[in-house]
Amino acid sequence: MHRLISAGIAVLALQVAAAEPVCPWPEAGSQQQRYHQQLSCYDQELVKARRSLEQWEKHHEFALQQHRQRTGRPAALNSYLSARESFKQLKEQHCRWQYQLQLPDVQAGAALYKHCQLQLINQRKVDLESLAAQ
After folding, report:
1. For domain 31-124, which architecture applies?
2. 25-35 tens-digit pLDDT
């Protein structure tokens, strides 16, 4: 029961976060200054999100290494490591095509790229958190 409640809270938190833009378009300044402010905000949020995701990735890797040591079966750890690399590639490719759609507006593309990265990282973190609760 506790696991279901934790998973539900995590999903609700993500939905609330999705309803409110993390780095809204600034209201003051020239367009160039606004882009700079927004991109700076995304950079700060990405640092925090990557750090948090990395902690959950290490948590799962450690647990899977212990499982491998106890059982002598490395399959789960190997699959996890492969999935982690696949996620990195997916994140890059998925956000890159969205960036390219905005060209030649490089600044709009950069903002969309960073927003995309932030969304995917946060979703992956929620997924790993919910798996740890099981």
Report:
1. Up-down Bundle (1.20)
2. 888 888 889 98
